[in-house]
Amino acid sequence: MVSLRDVEAPILPLSRFRPLIGEERHGALLAAGDRMRTLLEGNVVWNVNSTASGGGVAEMLQVLVGYIRGTGIDARWVVLEGDSAFFATTKRIHNRIHGMPGDGGALGPEEVAHYTEVTAANGIALRRRLRAGDVVLLHDPQTAGMAPALAEAGVTVLWRCHIGLDQPNPWTDEAWEFLRPHLVGIDRFVFSRRSYAPAWVPEERLTVIAPSIDPFSPKNQDIPSSQVAHFLTRMGVAAGSDGEGVSFTRRDGSRCELVQQATVISEGGPLSPRADLVVQVSRWDRLKDMQGVMAGFAARVVGRVDAHLALVGPSVEGVADDPEGATVLDDCVAAWEALPIDARRRVRLITLPMDDVDQNAVMVNALQRAATVIVQKSLAEGFGLTVAEGMWKAKPIVASRVGGITDQVTEGTGILLDVPDDLDAFGDALAGLLERPDEVARLGDRARRHILEQFMGDRHLLQYADLIERLLT
User: Fold this and answer.
1) What pLDDT digit, counting tens, does each position of 132-171 carry?
2) Which of 119, 258, 413, 442 minimizes the number of CB atoms within 10 Å of its CB?
3) Regarding the domain delimited by 225-454, which CATH topology (the fold level of the hierarchy) does it fall under?
């Protein structure tokens, strides 16, 4: 029997937003919470996805569910159950919705049958826990097949798709053809960009909501600049004394010492904390093109600018819904080993443990704060929250002009690459920016202000509250 896994999210107070966003925005947030609490009358807001850690969706759910609970609303988060064959199929769907073939495997009758069996069983398991009037948010392709089992439960069902491609192609068409029969009984489709929605989604049932970051989470909370080097040393990334006070605030508000360490593949030993550092943080996913970042950096930055590159991703054992991660990491290691020695000494592959999500998050935070420039050279991207996270830390961005990245990196906040796989153009843009420290500072300052204005959690929560209010009244 399928057993959905409950994920506990801490109760987070909306009051923490007030100093950042001001009285007017904070007041609107409180008023929306009051309306929603009255409207739901004790019913539950459910969120369902495929993993409790690893990737932007899990990170957003940790905080969004926590803030909803902070209003007094009963919000819950559950993770579906699936086997390796199921996740292999959903990874193909993921890649093809991004317009890429992925592993080239089939999405035929056998895959349809197994996907249907797994998602239907999860839908039935959740239906046993629902009561009329509940609201269910299903996240991404892994959960779409749960919708038919929920359609007759007297609940409101939203399907939230975090990925997509602006211009459809035969690969996206194949993925949507696979998913469409499962998306029955959906009351509202939610996409990060209007262009991501397939043409068959009715306009009256389509809502666009961009993701957001939580500035108070371990991944984004302030780390004094004087302590960043100590964090990197404690992680095993940089040279020097680990000092005192290497601690942070967990999501539940408790203080915690950083005790976990990164796994670092390098030739040149620990980083100097004074070195210019370029950082890309992402899953080990071919769409993130970690190998391309490495190749472009080695060819066009090494020898021109005194800088180092860190490619940072999760431990591949810690992301259950991404079966390609280990293979992509192995390929990156092989590519790193093939670099000339001068380049190899300036490139580090860093994997971060996933068994404690707060420890993982603060390590990402420290690496991004140590960076001179953040890059995100994705070949395709649903949204790319690592971009907003880097911008919040006042770092300029060099990224591909794809997907939701273009909504974040506006004029004066970074550099967008028109051709994601043009490695020379990428390397030249990066080296040119590193040669202009005044421009680095100027872009970084504007980047932080842009994220504060457009990509804070209060906007995200207000949009969801407005949507649910319209659906329930």
Assistant:
1) 999 999 999 999 999 999 988 999 999 999 999 999 999 9
2) 442
3) Rossmann fold (3.40.50)
